[in-house]
Amino acid sequence: MAHPAINLDExxxxxxxxxxxxxxxxxxxxxxxxxxxxxxxxxxxxRLDALEEDVKAGRPLGRPWSEVRERLQSR
Length: 75
What we know:
single chain; 3 helices
């Protein structure tokens, strides 16, 4: 794998963000290929289980925008 060397110290913050965005876009094309730690996998499993429980119980999914906005504004 020959890639040109990138000196992050030579990039402006804007250029670093652009590079990060390009990397993220590439990784998101194949999310199953992104390795997860055991802790990350356990957390994802926990969240999926909680989501399934909410669906089965008929609870609303997510939070209303008004609640999210209020919570953010209170910070």
